[in-house]
Amino acid sequence: MNAFVFPGQGSQFSGMGKDLADNFTAARQVFEEACDALGFDLAGLCFSGSEEDLKLTANTQPAILTTSIAALRVVEQETGLKPSYAAGHSLGEFSALVCTGALNFADAVRTVRQRGTFMQEAVPVGVGAMAAIMGIEREALEQLCAQAAQGEIVAPANFNSPGQIVIAGHATAVHRAIELAKEQGAKRALPLPVSAPFHSALMEPAAKRLKDVLAALAVQPFSCPVISNVEAKPYQEPERVKPLLVRQVCAPVRWDESVEAMANLGVERFIEIGPGKVLSGLIKRIAKGADTRQIDSLASLQKLAG
Questions:
Q1: Do the strands 154-161 and 164-170 form a parallel or antiparallel pair, or are they unpaired?
Q2: What is the spatial distance between Cα 145 and Cα 173, in angstroms, rounded to a whole number?
Q3: Is 48 a residue of the active site?
Q4: Where are the beta strands (DSSP E) in 117-216?
Q5: Rg of the chain over CA atoms, in angstroms?
Q6: What is the pLDDT, as a whole number, of residue 94?
Q7: Which of 24, 40, 72, 173 is least surrounded by CB atoms within 10 angstroms?
Q8: Which among 90, 195, 200, 258 is annotated as catalytic?
Q9: Residue 90 catalytic?
Q10: Catalytic residue among 199, 200, 258, 300
Q11: What is the per-residue pLDDT across 174-222, written as a single tens digit (0 to 9) for each?
């Protein structure tokens, strides 16, 4: 049984998608569709944009989504593989929904462009922060965050894999949490180079604005269930898409539980579709012995087909 999984922010790199677009019409068409939908040269940004421009959240989100769907269309055309389940890390849940046919690609790419803008504008630069904490278990870290808050917001934002949790909130509270984590024996506790405190209560203004944008979107029946970030459980009811995507903006990403859920449902092979190998690395730590593949180039596609 296959699961298709789609990356989120942090997987971007200059040159992503170019190899596939150079070799496959299906990939090239996806980039053309994105450029038309957004009204600017997203393909140029992905293929040769600067790392600085790609790091801007309003650019990162449509760029990763487009590269992921370009790779997906090539996988569908060249291999005939179909997923039993789809999932994505944060932004990647939009890619998963496009994969299942629940969301139209042009609608999704316009929406994530706005989502990125809303998330960036929700908190002034420098007010919020995120940090990766390694080697402290969930319950202990939640208590540590409560201790560090001191009237501010700091809480787990991404449960990525056993012993790797990302926290988010006010920059001063995140800094206090880093120091406490070091005192309590964390293997590593370091700030992340991000521009906003994603998946924290500080993102509430972004969630409200995204709700208004999603209201106008059409949602179609799913071809297979998607594992939601918010609940770490499969769903395929069209009416649940918008509420879950709104909640996802402020809620933690439960990636470790999502992978465990797919493994428990019988998934043996996880195919990461889109730029980078971040999810494959996490999956190997969560579902020991799982077969992971990654597709973002002609060479990786040939390896999968072989």
A1: antiparallel
A2: 8
A3: no
A4: 128-134, 154-161, 164-170, 188-191
A5: 18
A6: 98
A7: 40
A8: 90
A9: yes
A10: 199
A11: 999 999 999 998 899 999 888 789 999 999 999 999 999 999 999 999 9
